[in-house]
Write a structure and sequence with these properties.
This protein has 304 residues and is α+β, with helices and mostly antiparallel strands. It has one domain: Metallo-beta-lactamase, Chain A. Helix content is 29%, strand content 25%. The strands form 5 sheets. Strands 3, 4, 5, 6, 17 and 18 form a 6-stranded mixed sheet that branches. Helix 4 packs across helix 6.
């Protein structure tokens, strides 16, 4: 091989390695300049291995406030995580009424003096602040836009943060989509078709976001809330469009996909769903604590 060509290859490899190092650093220190001003967001992902779930912290260090999305387990770890950055939790949000694990939203909200938030129309037996499509939740300088995405549940919402990344709950996963059959009532195929069509429409809304929009789902591989999700808990809209098989289906095929080969219901589904609706006793279910063995903390840096 000519020496000149070898030299070019070495330079390109060196450049790639340098770029990869810079990207890994940027995960913790990246900032965005808007009209000459530096804007930061503290973003933290918690992975809970027992049910393959994810919770999120979104914070504004400039104003010292934060939101927690889809919390589970004991409040102490979320309080500790925010206190490490001098943040105070002012919003606690559940993307939907969960069916596979006990929500920690009510307990955490009570600890911080907030009212939990759920999508509008949530048929729950406790006080909450409803989130409607197009609503904007301000966390200091951070703006979270609500996207109503029914299908998995009627009240389900996704959360678009600063037009940069989206928390997709149980609507869109990495390599998969949510299921539509997790309901306490017996439903026939006609009702499932209606739900599948709603899910299809919700996914089309998400796919209308820019390709570079980062995707942070509510579950990863091992969860019973999908069929074949990936073990990686981060993606982009563009990557999912290219690689997620369910997103390549037309409406008719998507409905057929949702009505076939449904996985088993989550363990203790009936009790967990009723408890999260406010009509059951959550104390009957043991929930592992965040930060204990089996829970992974995915980063705690500044991002924007």
């Amino acid at each position: 091989m000519p020496r000149v060509l070898l030299s070019v290859i070495r330079e390109r490899l060196l450049f790639k390695r340098t770029l990869d190092k810079l990207k890994s650093v940027e995960q913790d220190t990246r900032v965005r300049r808007v009209f000459g001003k530096v804007k930061r967001v503290i973003f933290r992902q918690f992975l809970h291995e027992q049910h393959s779930c994810a919770s999120y912290l979104i914070g504004c260090p400039s104003r010292g406030v934060a939101a927690i999305v889809d919390p589970q387990g004991e409040p102490s770890e979320y309080l500790s995580a925010t206190e490490q950055h001098g943040l105070r939790i002012i919003e606690v949000i559940d993307s939907h009424v969960h069916a596979d694990h006990l929500s920690g939203a009510r307990e955490l909200a009570e600890r911080v003096g907030a009212t939990p938030r759920l999508g509008a129309g949530a048929d729950v037996g406790f006080d909450h602040n409803p989130l409607s499509d197009g609503d904007v939740v301000e966390i200091g300088n951070r703006r979270i836009r609500v996207i109503h995405t029914p299908g998995h549940t009627p009240e389900h919402v996704c959360l678009l943060v600063d037009d940069w990344f989206v928390l997709t709950g149980d609507t869109l996963f990495v390599g998969d989509v949510g299921r539509v059959d997790l309901t306490l009532q017996d439903v026939d195929d006609d009702e499932l078709r209606i739900r599948a069509k709603r899910m299809y429409g919700s996914l089309q809304r998400l796919l209308g976001l820019p390709d570079e929009t980062e995707v942070y789902p509510g579950h990863y591989a091992g969860s019973s809330c999908g069929r074949g999700m990936d073990g990686k808990a981060i993606s982009t809209i563009g990557r999912e469009i290219r690689t997620n098989r369910a997103l390549s289906l037309d409406l008719e095929d998507f409905v057929a996909f949702q009505l076939s080969d449904a996985p088993p219901l989550p363990d203790d589904f009936d009790h967990i769903k009723r408890a999260n609706l406010g009509s059951g006793d959550p104390k009957k279910e043991h929930t592992p604590r965040i930060g204990s063995e089996g829970v992974i903390d995915q980063g705690s840096g500044y991002r924007s």
